[in-house]
Amino acid sequence: MNYFDAVILGIVEGLTEFLPVSSTGHLTIAERLLGLKVDDPHVTAFTAVIQMGAIAAVLLYFAKDIGTIASAWIQGLYKPELRGSFDHRMGWYVIAGSIPIGLVGFFGKDVIKGPLRSLWVVAIALIAWSAVMWFAERRTTQARHERDLTLQDAVIIGLAQCIALVPGVSRSGATMSAGLLRNLDRVTATRLSFFLSIPALTAAGLYELKDALGGGVGLGPTLVGTGVSFVVAYAAVAWLLKFVANHSIVAFVPYRVLLGLGL
Question: Is the distance from CB of 126 to CB of 228 less than 8 angstroms?
Answer without folding.
Answer: no
